[in-house]
Amino acid sequence: MSPSDLKRKGETEAAPALPLPAPAKPAPSGPTRVVLASEVAAAFINDLKKAVSEKKTAPLLVGFLANNDPAAKKYAEWTGKTCQDAGFRFELRECEKQELEDKLFEANKDAKVNGIMIYYPVFGGTQDSYLQNSVSIQKDVEGLCHTYRYNMYHNVRFLDESSKFKCIIPCTPLAVIKILEHIGVYNKIMHEGNRLYGQTITVVNRSEVVGRPLAALLANDGAKVYSADEFGMVEFHRGSGIQLKKHEVFETKTTLEEALKASDVVITGVPSDKYKVDTALLKDGVVAVNFSTSKNFKDDIRQKAAIFVPSVGKVTVAMLLRNLVRLEEYQEAKVV
Amino acid sequence: MSPSDLKRKGETEAAPALPLPAPAKPAPSGPTRVVLASEVAAAFINDLKKAVSEKKTAPLLVGFLANNDPAAKKYAEWTGKTCQDAGFRFELRECEKQELEDKLFEANKDAKVNGIMIYYPVFGGTQDSYLQNSVSIQKDVEGLCHTYRYNMYHNVRFLDESSKFKCIIPCTPLAVIKILEHIGVYNKIMHEGNRLYGQTITVVNRSEVVGRPLAALLANDGAKVYSADEFGMVEFHRGSGIQLKKHEVFETKTTLEEALKASDVVITGVPSDKYKVDTALLKDGVVAVNFSTSKNFKDDIRQKAAIFVPSVGKVTVAMLLRNLVRLEEYQEAKVV
Question: What segment(s) does the record annotate as region Disordered (chains A, B) (predicted)?
Fold first, then answer.
């Protein structure tokens, strides 16, 4: 692999993992079980429909688009369609960059708005971090404000002391977790929080919106995680015998090649059509998950992987709506 | 390890894996989930009770004891007790070695007898193989006659062409399989027959009654299996990309130490209190299963394994009765 292909995504990168349509061609004769995001999303969407049908008013999600990015616009339209199908209300509010902050504060204060998301990048760089932290914690469906991030990195799973209200987790990392649960990588017989103990996982992407939080979540659940980007490799784990309460980040001399050879699960999110994982490096029977809109695995992964998940987008949108339902309940209960 | 500690069990060894009582001391504070055989057996026993309660007559299992072995006698008593608890009928028929064959043929012909087992060794060596093949295929609850063995090794899963009647599998290997299913090592999202694809498993024991059939069953289900005894190491698997329809046995230069280091699951059955697996060699988060009546893992396995199964005996007896129920149905349907 060329390190320059591993783009580090900044804190303000574009919305991750566009919901792509399921690949049309049927699985070839290899032993690989191809699991589509739509299969995983279906149960969540059904639960969401049921939850909405029991409410007096459908929760309202507001999306702010201020970047004229056609990909973001497409993502927004797709979110709107999924909202409509599942019975939620969605309003896309387009505006100029300079107007965004004022409009955001209006929405923060408006009791009729239950969830807010912003299509990034707006300004790019740290100014977008400022925007992320400007979304009310009560309405932050993307889970990108500092409190939710802090709790996630510190393995704090609830907002309240009685462990009733779960923290909001960023949608794409959460989607990957839910996919790994669905496909049996999480072992349900083990205690919650330890269910990845024994799994070695490589995540190729260490962006602030997906790769880094995902590595932290996986390590908090007991995995040994190799996290790769073009600046190199680090390990996230809870130490030998998962003795630590939360993950720590360790320097490593392990190369990406060595990490891929050792991994039970390989998760990719490199936003480039040029980047492809070398199938020959992977373990026979690996679990391969791609959350990039680009295809980061070659076609021959279907003869080498036990399970292959080509995209995650539909689950990401389901997680967005799941976060919305939670936040609406927290608003009712005045949790935060 | 000392190779001399790895006793090769002959085709005629004593009944495997006595049902030991669950260890009394509670699991220490490590991350390990200790799974007792009683926990796995419970659901099977409930199903068996239900099956028996729906029958006009409780199936009758006959056990032949001709070796004056106190351990075999204890196992026989324990089988009798489990039969009684679950609603089955059990008759222990004690006799002299030289009388056994005649008494066996009587039981083969007696329509009131639904299942037959023999407590081995009787004569030892190949004369006991002759006895194993003398048990009627219609009543062989232990699955030790040639037809069942042949089908198992050749990955033939049904007795009939319409795939309605499953082959009988030897009880202890089957018990280990059911335990691995219960604890999530078998991945249910994958196609049946491929559910161990991606798993590397070491089995320390290559006896004809447990270790070799177990390695074959695991490899037939997609695992890469290292099989160890004091004569050395061999690999059982279906090749790269599990392309073969049934397992093959491959020569290997991999040492037991290397195999243990590479294994996701380590299964032991060494009938010696002296033999202990060196915990330091195992992967952090390994799955450890012991089917020996001796403790083949050290106490510190409870700080290194994700899941530890200290014994399998209660599941073995449940499988014996499950085979009995099947055979009784096959007798009704005149399958074989």
Answer: 1-29
Q: What is the largest CA-CA distance in chain A?
A: 56
In tens, the pLDDT along A251-275 reads 999 999 999 999 999 999 999 999 9
The pLDDT of residue A273 is 93
Tokens of B1: 């390890």
Range A3-37+172-315 classified under CATH 3.40.50.720: yes
**Per-residue model confidence as pLDDT tens digits over B101-112:** 999 999 999 999
Q: What is the pLDDT of residue B27?
A: 40
Which of A35, A250, A284 should be substituted to probe chain B, the one whose Cβ sees the most B Cβ atoms within 10 Å?
Answer: A284
The answer to whether B311 and B290 are in contact (CB under 8 A) is yes
Q: Cα(B215)–Cα(A68) distance, rounded to whole angstroms? A: 60
Note whether A200 and A264 are within 8 A (CB): yes
Interface predicted TM-score (ipTM) over 0.90: no
Question: Which residue ranges of chain A lie beneath pLDDT 50?
Answer: 1-28
CA distance B53 to B39: 22
CATH 3.40.50.720 describes domain B3-13+27-37+172-313 = yes
Nearest 5°: CA angle at A251, between A249 and A254? 120
* Sign of the CA dihedral with A131 first, then A137, A138, and A143 last: positive
Contact assignment for A197 to B287 by CB distance below 8 Å? no
Per-residue pLDDT of B3-23, as tens digits, reads 333 443 333 343 344 344 444
Burial class of B138 by CB neighbour count within 10 A (0 to 12, 13 to 18, 19+): middle
Domain boundaries, chain B: 3-13+27-37+172-313, 40-153+316-329
Please list every residue in chain B whose beta carbon sits closer than 8 Å to the beta carbon of residue A199.
285
pLDDT at res. B29: 54
